[in-house]
Amino acid sequence: MRFTSEQRLDDGVIERQFFLGEIPGVLWTPGSPSGPVPLVLLGHPGGLHRMYPRLVSRARGCAASGFASATIELPGSGDRPPVSTIQRARADLRRTLSAGETVDPELIDRLILPLVERAVPEWRATIDALLAHAEVGGPIGYSGGVISIGIRLAIIEPRIVAAGLFAGSFVPRTMLDEARRVTIPLHVLLQWDDEGNDRQMALDLFDAFGSNEKTLHANLGGHTGVPKFAGDDVARFFARHLK
Q1: For 209-240, how does the pLDDT look when each residue is reduced to its tens digit (9 = 90+)?
Q2: What SS3 state is found at 18?
Q3: Residue 66 has what pLDDT?
Q4: Mean per-residue pLDDT of the chain
Q5: Is the pLDDT at 111 greater than 80, yes or no?
Q6: Is 239 strand, coil or helix?
Q7: What's the fold here for domain 2-242?
Q8: 3-class DSSP assignment, residue 104
Q9: Whole-angstrom distance between the N-terminal and C-terminal Cα of the chain?
């Protein structure tokens, strides 16, 4: 991991841009930490520059709770080299949605499963690198992003102790089997009228999670209509489990 820039935001949060190999990312830390602090991994749907305003807002919230936070670009997104299989699946998905047609499960598999296989090892390598940073410690939470990536990480990464998941992305049917193996505490956010989300799949997925502590927070509204208080609830969830 090599840091390429550092700046102090107006609320004192320290923002550092970095590269992990060729993967771009950002680390945010509280301005005056008393020592190594817990870490929240900020997932997103891809396009780090496009997502930056929402990510930095979430990072500020983490810092206010005394947590560091970090994100990396997804494979094939933003300035990273395209991945041909994912690129073709995204193009097919756009055509399907623009035509008002039902998204075929095989298309969802072609889009999401290769992304999970590539992104999860990158997130684990990012954790390794971040925990070597003097201001970052554990425990670790995962928040938002492509829900299938969060599911896989929750299963295979023991350093993640809690996850706040957004049920707003397409989910391969095989992820239901993986969800049954998730046992960490979960806070799942569902926008009830999400135009790009299969609501029944989201409910089936929540039912499948094997966690003894899991909460489903559903709100009326579309994909981008998440109310502020829903974010406040996620912050309280991580405060319970990371402190």
Answers
A1: 999 999 999 998 887 778 888 889 999 999 99
A2: strand
A3: 94
A4: 94
A5: yes
A6: helix
A7: Rossmann fold (3.40.50)
A8: coil
A9: 26
Distances (CA, A) of 72 to 52, 145, 183, 198: 11, 11, 25, 26
Alpha-carbon distance of 49 to 235, in angstroms, equals 24
Tell me what pLDDT residue 17 has. 98
The DSSP line for 145-198 is: S-HHHHHHHHHH-TTEEEEEEE--S---TTHHHHHTT--S-EEEEEETT-TTS-
What's the mean pLDDT in 1-16?
A: 96
DSSP string, 22-55: TEEEEEEE-SS-SS-EEEEEEE-SS-HHHHHHHH
Tell me the domain boundaries of the chain: 2-242
Question: What kind and span of H or E run contains 8?
Answer: strand 2-8
- The pLDDT-based confidence of 195 (bands split at 50, 70, 90) is confident
pLDDT higher than threshold 90 for residue 197: no
Helix or strand or coil: residue 12? coil
Q: Which residues contact 46 (CB under 8 A, 6 or more apart)?
A: 73, 74, 76, 77, 78
Chain position carrying tokens 């609320």: 11
- Residues 6 or more apart in contact with residue 70 via CB below 8 angstroms: 25, 26, 27, 28, 39, 40, 41, 42, 126, 130
